[in-house]
Amino acid sequence: MTDSADDAAVTSLRIAALALPALGVLAAEPIYLLFDIAIVGRLGALSLAGLAIGGLILSVVSAQLTFLSYGTTARSARFYGAGDRVAAVGEGVQATWLALGMGVAIVAAVQLAAVPIVSAIAGTTPGGDIAGAALPWVRIAIFGVPAILVSAAGNGWMRGVQDTMRPLRYVLVGFGVSAVLCPLLVYGWLGLPRLELAGSAIANLVGQWLAAILFCWALLAEKVSLRIDTSVLRAQVVMGRDLVLRTLAFQACFVSAAAVAARFGAAAVAAHQVVLQLWNFLALVLDSLAIAAQSLVGAALGAGRTEHAKSVAWRVTVFSAIAAAVLAFVFAAGASVLPSLFTDDRSVLAEIGVPWWFMVAQLPVAGIVFALDGVLLGAGDAAFMRTATLLSALVGFLPLIWLSLAFGWGLLGIWSGLSTFMVLRLVFVGWRAFSGRWLVPGTN
């Protein structure tokens, strides 16, 4: 075997060593959410629709700060690649302070505006059926946002220093506790009160804070300074600004999709939620390879090894494309069986076929897109990612979403928009990857 072949084998093994635990971390939340859907789904379409709206609000407000994870990984990985672990962990300290401050602000804002937010998305007046089901869930579950953000910051710096095993353990403990509590509180088993949808929110909350405490403990164990460093905070916020705008584009699309689906009734929005959660799960499965790319590309560029960064980018993209093709085959083969695992409501099952096949068709494209997302995020190419996502949303997704409402296209129009969005993103990130403009060495 040649030296280059040896290097290639080591790179592939390193990708796998980082990606597999990252897969566990990324898959834990959507698996739990699918479990939560299965538990709540037995309460009926209205409860499932309430969970759909409430879960959407929680994901929207917490997902706006994904730079606490992805931005921290990119910055931390560059310092780690340059041999400065203290600075790499220091990025995690500052990201955690940001997480706590912003999390508290989000809790206060959502509590104040919960009624109009829920009513606007659900498409009913305050106290209406879907809004009435979602509101109590939102008021409880929103207290988990600071914990979600602290865990995101913890994942970010640990991925940066190429440690994906401890985050896996922490997340599994948190979601494991939630999974035990959820049916007990929803159905009132073992003598506990039957809280129905509110029980789902409480189970979420307990697990999220348990995981956050474990991430904070890991940060304390590093014995680095915990003081606020305004220069690091400023740099994180600059990168975060672009990533927040990128995330806003995603969320504008998904909020619009849920709002339009809700106008077609509880069964439509519930079917949309089931397939969307599956889509999110599959996206995060593929994103495990993208996370390996973030860590390895960032470290390679921090060490000035641009050729190695290109090698990682190519390998991750190939691996992700293969994995996506396999997943597409599995979910195509299971189209007649798998939906019934999440609900036994016939009205929901009758609506689910259209989004299901759109999801299957998108997977091969998504495999390439998510891999290249990871490469560009690892390189800190946040400004380009922001612009590409905004353009894809404005040109591809949002027009079809709102035309669906105007012309009554329903889930067919909504998922056509999502597919167009994904194809446009493929064009943008593919061009950028081939251009080589992301190959900027150094720690800045």
Automatic annotation (TrEMBL):
InterPro entries assigned to the protein according to its UniProt record, in alphabetical order: DinF-like (IPR044644), MATE_fam (IPR002528)
Keyword presence, Transmembrane: yes
Membrane protein topology class: Multi-pass membrane protein
Predominant subcellular localization, coarse grouping: membrane
Keyword hit for ATP-binding: no
Record keywords, A-Z: Membrane, Transmembrane, Transmembrane helix
Cellular localisation: Membrane
GO molecular function: antiporter activity; xenobiotic transmembrane transporter activity
Membrane-crossing segments per the record: 43-68, 97-122, 134-158, 170-190, 202-222, 243-266, 278-304, 316-342, 354-376, 388-408
CC annotations in GO: plasma membrane
Family: Belongs to the multi antimicrobial extrusion (MATE) (TC 2.A.66.1) family.
PANTHER family referenced in this protein's UniProt entry, alphabetically: PROTEIN DETOXIFICATION 44, CHLOROPLASTIC (PTHR42893:SF46), PROTEIN DETOXIFICATION 44, CHLOROPLASTIC-RELATED (PTHR42893)
Protein name (Swiss-Prot/TrEMBL): Multidrug transporter MatE
Organism: Mycolicibacterium aromaticivorans JS19b1 = JCM 16368
